[in-house]
Each structure stands twice: as structure tokens, then as C-alpha cells.
Replication protein P (Klebsiella pneumoniae), 84 residues
Amino acid sequence: MKSIAESMHNFDRENFQRVAAGLPEMQDEQAVKRQAAKTAEIFNELFRQLLAVFPVLANKSVGRPQRDASPVVVGVQRKRDHHS
């Protein structure tokens, strides 16, 4: 138990020295893993919500144009030239 407390104390002391020198804090491996897992959860939830709002995206393949997709037509009308 004493070695764990010593290693935590040393880690904290090193981080305080880094911060005092204007360097970023070091993170322990577990903190990095927790942050990565949290980031993955956020992105997974984001994509889940996007697919709920736009379900057609789930069936699209990346990089290939869809042949059955109808083009989007914007309501723009041209003026006709009556002199022709």
C-alpha cells in the first residue's frame, strides 16, 4: 500500500513541476483510456441520433452515387423570352 501512495505522490509532484514550468500535465494510462471511452460514447450517441433523424443515411454507401436516388429540384423558374 505504501508503494502505491508513494507513486501517486511522485506522479502528483511531477505534474505540479510540469505545470509550474508551463508544460501540460501528464495523464496516467487509465485517465487516457477513460477519456477515449467517453469520447467514443459521445460519438456513438451522436451518430445514433443522426441516424434516427436521417434514417436514409444508414442505407447509403460511401463513395458510390446512388442510382435510385432522385435529384433534388429547387423551385427556380427561368423567364421566357417572348421574342423567339
